[in-house]
Amino acid sequence: MRLTTTRAAAVLGAPVLALTLLAPAAHATDVDPAAAGATVLDRIGAPTTTTADGPVWSPVATGFAATPTDDLPHGTTGGAGGDAVTVRDAAALADAAASDDPLTIYVKGTIEPAEFGSMIDVASDKTIVGLASDAELVGVGLRLDHVQNVVVRNLRFRDSYVPGDWDGKSAENDNDGIRVDTSSHVWIDHNELTRLGDGLIDVRKDSTAVTLSWNYLHDHNKTVGVGWTDNVVTEITMHHNRFSNTYQRNASIDNVAAGHLYNNWFDGQAQYGTMSRGASQLVVESSVYSNGEDAIVAKDPASKVDSRDNRFTTIRGRKDDTGPTFDPAARYAYAPDDVADVVRILTADAGTLGAPEKVRRTVTVALDGTGDYASIGAAVGAASRSSHPVEIVVEPGVYREVVRVWPGADGVTIRGATGDPEDVVLTYDLAAGQAKFYGGTFGHTGSPVLSVLAEDVTLRDLTVENAYDEAANGGSQALALRTSGDRTVLDDVRLLGNQDTYLADPGSGDTASRTYVTGSYIEGDVDFVYGGGTLVVEDSEIRSLDRGSGTNNGYVAAPATVPGGKGFLFTHTRFTSDAAAGTVFLGRPWHPSSNPLVDPSVVVRDSWLGAHVGTPAWSDMSGWSWRDDFMREFRNAGPGAAPAGQVVDGRPQLTDDEAAAHTREAYLTGDDGWRPWRR
């Protein structure tokens, strides 16, 4: 596989922790942990940067990992007091990690296992640290099972993802970057984890006294899971971690006695951010949630979360706060950085000592392991953090995943490698009315297979499909594509679905976002092109599916044109269907939540209409008459068109003067002179 990527804390009255399932081990109790930690940091060349909370690279454990026991009076110290070794391959790392003695293990270069997706067992009293900026584990993870006193720092974990298994359900994909089972005193600090098998980090089965700090987690579905037990004993701190383009589990925290999350940055979570489950007691403070859904969720009646001084930017959905839980300051010393500084600090300092992520201007995605990435979502996530436009070339295959082109990925192009859109299929099967496992439904922003939220994005030569099964599950909104960024282009794209296949959202600017669709195919049955944005569809096919009715087989368009928008224009396009003659409407006016400020507008001109289009060509919607909004045709042909030159009730036509104002140029060019048809 060619895949390439580029404080000392004083403890205040902390309780003595014990884990009865741990095997006894010998620890160096006379070692100075701060001096030992400083030696490690000096060896790897860590900077001396500090923030209000203390050193960015702390010589000693922080958070709950620093809490003392009789056996570990200094808290987590890892291999301090033992020998130091350097390893350069998986076999040497496995041997050293399994040692019975305290050991500091320096990892040099790239570690790849003999068996892809395997995990290396780590014994107690170990520090495993990347020696230089290029230290990484590729296709292999670390497993801590019934151990204690382990430190993992400055390592990149990447690419044990099984191509095509975005859901993480494959039997060969049950591997994590770091898995902690029934273990105590674990400090996971300054690592980078991306594109792995199941979870990036899992803390499970009564593990406790765990801290995750200054890690960079990105481009993955299931990110951090905590729990897998009915016991409520785990104590965990997560601070100064950066999450980017991570779909869920950020973190999912189940039955945790005390969970403290502070100064984390969650950017781009398409399903949910942080979840308190079971009887968990969480404090979430001074963290940033941006570009996502359901930022903070208390799932169950006993799930508690105290949300303090958090910042939410472009977040839709839940931001739960159930009130006070516990006081972290009574457990250990900390001084959270100002929430206004979190993004800047974590952009600069989260992750390893390695060079910043580099993304080439053209990258490839392939299911056979020959690409730069094995999922479209991972490539798009990298592009969203790039300082330059990126072209993503997708090799043939069926890619089952949910993809978001996040703000910041301006100028990205996603195109199929062969030029035939049927060769590259992006598919998933969420519906807007479908229940989330933690309550509520996905909604029109949660269900799309692909959402384009950045500007100047081009989709070309690919298929986007919402495969939700209406026959089995009943009709529901099930979006293939949502666009809300300005200047979006669809060129030779197939959009497949039933109800609400394509949402052209207006965006958040002063004027409605503009989308140009050319040479493409869109199919559905009910309102399958809808929204408040400005949209021009040209030289394309609009296919109405046959619902088997003799009277009403659906509606093509449902515009909800916002002030400043132009609405929808279909020009030089074919409207086709196998449905019975006269049973499909060209559209109806959508007033979301009966909003009187929208002014729905749709024009179909110079197009061919099949016999399925009836008269009247338009329909009322939710008490709003189509006659009160702008629903017009002009110079159409075909068996479903109104006879030329005749005035037909229910088929209002543009005048010649009006027609001059309803062209692709009038809809799209704008003050910036955008003319995408000239590419």
Key attributes of the depicted protein:
8 helices; Pectate Lyase C-like; Pectinesterase_Tyr_AS; mainly beta; 15-stranded parallel β-sheet; 50 strands; 679 residues; 16-stranded parallel β-sheet; elongated; single chain
Topology:
Elements: H1 33-44, E1 50-51, E2 54-55, E3 83-87, H2 90-97, E4 103-107, E5 110-111, E6 118-121, E7 126-130, E8 136-138, E9 140-145, E10 148-153, E11 156-158, E12 178-181, E13 184-189, E14 192-194, E15 199-204, E16 208-213, E17 216-227, E18 234-239, E19 242-254, E20 256-262, E21 265-269, E22 274-277, E23 281-285, E24 288-293, E25 296-298, E26 304-308, E27 311-316, H3 342-349, E28 362-365, H4 376-384, E29 391-394, E30 397-400, E31 403-405, E32 413-416, E33 424-428, H5 443-446, E34 450-452, E35 458-466, H6 470-473, E36 481-483, E37 488-496, E38 502-504, E39 514-518, E40 521-524, E41 526-531, E42 534-538, E43 541-544, E44 555-559, E45 568-571, E46 574-577, E47 585-587, E48 601-605, E49 608-609, E50 630-634, H7 656-659, H8 664-668
Parallel strand pairs: 3-4, 4-7, 5-8, 6-9, 7-10, 8-11, 9-12, 10-13, 11-14, 12-15, 13-16, 14-17, 15-17, 16-18, 17-19, 18-20, 19-21, 19-22, 20-23, 21-24, 22-25, 23-26, 24-27, 28-29, 29-32, 30-33, 31-34, 32-35, 33-35, 34-36, 35-37, 36-38, 37-39, 37-40, 38-41, 39-42, 40-43, 41-44, 42-45, 43-46, ...
Antiparallel strand pairs: 1-2
